[in-house]
Amino acid sequence: MRKHIFRSVLGIILFSLLIYEIAQACISYRNYRISAQQQLRSIANILTENCTDCNKINSELQKNLSYYVRLTYVDFDGNVIYDSDTDSRTLGNHYQRKEISDALKYGNSEATRDSQTFGKYTYYYAVKNNCGIYRFSCEINNFIYEFSKTFV
Q1: CB of 78 closer than 8 Å to CB of 96
Q2: HSE on the CB side for 50, CA within 13 Å?
C-alpha cells in the first residue's frame, strides 16, 4: 500500500514539475519575443532618423545589438536596392510583403512570419523615409527551442 501511495505522490510531483516547466517556457518565450521586438524597433527608428547609408546603418546594428539583424533597403516600387545577407539583384520585388506595403501607407510596420528567402521564423520591422523603406529583420527562436533551454 505504501509503495502505491509513494508512486502516486511521486507521479503527481513529476507531473506538476512538467506543467511548471511548460508554463515557465511559455512566459520566457513571450518575454524574449517582446524584448527583441522592442529593442529592434527602437534602434531602427534611431538609426533611420540620423543616417541614410545602408552600410553604416548595418555596421551600427551589429555593433549595438547582441543578436544578428538583417537590413534590407527597398525603393517605393518594392525593388530591393540593398540587402546585408543576399545579393539584392537575386531578390524579387517586395512590394506585396505586408511590412513593406504597410510601411508605405503608415510610415512604419511590423510582421512576424517565415522568411521567404531563408525559411526561418522572422520578425520584420520596416521604416519609410524620403528615399524608400528600411526593413530590419531578426530570426525569432521558436517555442520548442526556448522550451528545450529550460532543461539545459
Answers
A1: yes
A2: 9
CA distances from 75 to 26, 57, 59, 116, 130 (A): 38, 17, 21, 19, 10
- pLDDT for the residue 150: 53
Report the Cα 81 to chain-centroid distance in Å: 22
Q: Is the pLDDT of residue 148 over 60?
A: no
CA atoms within 13 A on the CB side of 34: 6
Residue 49 has pLDDT above 70, yes or no: yes
State the alpha helices, DSSP H only, in 65-130: 98-106
pLDDT digits (tens, 9 = 90+) for 79-93: 998 888 777 778 888
Listed in order, strand segments (DSSP E) in 41-147 are 70-74, 80-83, 108-114, 121-128, 133-139
Which amino acid makes up residue 146? E
pTM score, two decimals?
Answer: 0.71
